[in-house]
Description:
Elements: H1 18-27, H2 58-62, H3 73-86, H4 90-103, H5 108-120, H6 141-162, E1 170-171, E2 174-176, E3 183-188, E4 193-200, E5 203-211, E6 214-215, E7 232-235, E8 240-241, E9 252-255, H7 261-265, E10 274-276, E11 288-290, E12 294-295, H8 298-304, E13 314-318, E14 323-324, H9 326-349, H10 352-356, E15 359-365, H11 371-383, E16 388-400, E17 403-417, E18 421-433, E19 436-444
Parallel strand pairs: 3-13, 6-11, 10-12, 15-19
Antiparallel strand pairs: 1-14, 2-16, 3-4, 4-5, 7-13, 8-9, 9-10, 16-17, 17-18, 18-19
Amino acid sequence: MTLFTRGRTGRIGGLLPPVLVLTLLASIGVTLFLTLTPAEEVHALGGQPRAPGDVEPLDAIAAITLPRRETSDVESSVVRGILDVARSRPDAALAEIDRILQSNPNFRLAHLVRGDLLLARARPLTAFGNSGHSGADGEGTERIERLNDLRAEARARLTRLAAEPPTDLLPKQLLQLDPNQRYAVVVDSAKSTLYVFEQVDGKIRYLSDFYISIGRNGTDKVREGDKRTPLGVYHVRANLPRQKLPDFYGSGALPINYPNEWDRREGRTGHGIWLHGVPADTFARPPLSSDGCVVLANPDFDALLPLMQIGSTPVLLTSTIEWVDPAAIDSMRRSLAQTIEAWRQDWESRDVSAYLRHYARDFSGDGGRDLDAWLQQKGKVNASKTWVRIGLRNTSMFLYPNRDNLAVVQFEQDYASNNLNQQMRKRQYWQLQDGVWRIVYEGNA
Length: 445
């Protein structure tokens, strides 16, 4: 069952500049002209268009200004330098790159771009990263791997900056934030991008984004040591400052709660998945280079850190973001909210059969209790009650990445009865089964 109608495809919000990009595309075997296609149809690390389309004249590309979006000044400067190349201003481009390197001498990609600019003064470039080759026979494997890593970083940065976030669409996973959750993080692994969204007056809107690196073997972590980044709904659970960590983690680290309840249910193993920075001798890492963590440049981590609410900020790790109309999100949110309200009312009624209809046969709860054990315990509790009142507040709802039929709901529960008053933070996983939302997990958050 399809829960959403796909929104309009993202637009190219700043076309890729010609000279360096053309040589870059040549180095990966892509046709030597810029093809205008929807940004969503361009693979983040391969840059391959869906099909040839209209060719944009080079003079038109040179006239384009960068899209107005919140991103790293250093990253914007790299693109501005490339645009200067497109506008036949190599000296200006070199000055731009030199300015970057003056404040960020460990930015290896900028060094490679600078080398190509200098080389271009002597002879035409045949591929991006020409200056990285010594020209000697039998060039070392490690050197070639480093060069390929820089090419991959260049492709990822150019592709992500070309795909300007649509201002009128949102990731379909963001159904509802708790009123106390001011920010949410959504990672688009395919675009090597971490997006930050802000909640203002109950509305969610795009705030900023950052280039990131993920696991060297991609996404969908299954087991310990597979060097993959997990996909799912997580929360920041701690802030580990620079002073308490090895230099490898740079500006600091934000551990998330992997494995979550759904990961454990599916038998996924591993631990220590963090958002963190980079060592002092590194500005950024290639797109696929971590052991499973999400890695940011230190200035970007420093910009992200003040927005994170420990124990609260949601971190959604996706393979790719599907942007949809907020109206479609609101429709799904209201549908799920109505189901949750029906569950609350049936629990409050103390009608066990009505309460039971909201739970899946493959349900599991805290302590690994199955449905029979769960209902047996609820039946005993209800037998001692003459009345029950259930209140839910500060509710958040998220669709699970890569699983449109699964939602994570979290709320503060106020329980009152004739012999017990209790407050707790609860988390539920609701699954769409045969067109009906049912609870497959419930426990304390």
